[in-house]
Amino acid sequence: GAGVSQSPSNKVTEKGKDVELRCDPISGHTALYWYRQSLGQGLEFLIYFQGNSAPDKSGLPSDRFSAERTGGSVSTLTIQRTQQEDSAVYLCASSLRGVNTGELFFGEGSRLTVL
Amino acid sequence: DQQVKQNSPSLSVQEGRISILNCDYTNSMFDYFLWYKKYPAEGPTFLISISSIKDKNEDGRFTVFLNKSAKHLSLHIVPSQPGDSAVYFCAAEQGAQKLVFGQGTRLTINP
């Protein structure tokens, strides 16, 4: 497809389990972002990739969260030992030139529910 | 520390009238502001933006106003249409390649 693709769209897991969320950005987009939206909250920045490197990891909430990007394309966000407070919609976005022009294209998100 | 705030969680407007969505920020170093629109089960989509060197930007039915002294921006939609019903997010950028978002305002346009 032409847009940002995320999988799974929904994930229900038990507390303590690890989860992986995948993002397939728009082809050719060099910048990739992960945000999350908890219930009733705004979009919270998690991490930003330029190519395969992550110049800004400042938003990752704890060391249970990690992300990687390979081949300048697909990215995986991994949450280890999930907690109930990790429940949120995790949104991925990609951009060709960065945020200044508003050209941040979001996927539909992965809804994570931790029981 | 919420650097971008949208204090109205919801707003209801009659079709054809003007919708005004407000946003306040605390960081005077923000140099670019954006509005995104989000429908249920979809990702946010870019709507309109404004640079900090301007005080107004207009695009069709959508106008964004920036008041730097008050650290306030607003989005005006006129006339409002049923398809405008969505959650609107205000966002700010500081040149650090990331956007800081507000909590969102749910706009409902009533026929």
Q: Short summary of the structure?
A:
By secondary structure, chain A is mostly beta strands.
Describe this structure in words.
The complex is a heterodimer of chains A (115) and B (111). Chain A is mostly beta strands. Chain A has strands at residues 5-7, 10-13, 19-24, 31-37, 43-50, 53-56, 65-69, 75-79, 88-95, 105-106, 110-114. In chain A, strands 2, 4, 5, 6, 9, 10 and 11 form a seven-stranded mixed beta sheet that branches. The termini of chain A are far apart. By secondary structure, chain B is an all-beta fold. Chain B has strands spanning 4-5, 10-14, 19-25, 32-38, 45-51, 56-59, 62-67, 72-77, 86-93, 99-101, 105-110. In chain B, the strands form two sheets. In chain B, strands 2, 4, 5, 9, 10 and 11 form a six-stranded mixed beta sheet that branches. In chain B, strands 1-3-8-7-6 form a five-stranded antiparallel beta sheet, with no helix packed on it. In chain B, strand 6 (56-59) and strand 7 (62-67) form a beta hairpin.
What value does the average pLDDT of chain A take?
Answer: 91
Structural class of chain B: mainly beta
Share in helix of chain B: under 10%
Mean pLDDT of chain B: 93
* Largest sheet entry of chain B: 6 strands, mixed
Cα separation of the termini of chain B: 38 Å
Tell me, briefly, the overall form of chain A: globular
Query: Low-confidence runs of chain B (pLDDT<50, min 5 residues)?
Result: none
Number of helices of chain A: 0
Segments of chain A where pLDDT lies below 50 for 5+ residues? none
What is the total tally of β strands of chain B?
Answer: 11
Largest interface: A-B, 29 and 26 residues
Radius of gyration based on Cα positions of chain B: 13 Å
Helix content of chain A: under 10%
Order of helices and strands of chain B: EEEEEEEEEEE
Strand content of chain A: over 45%
* Global shape of chain B: globular
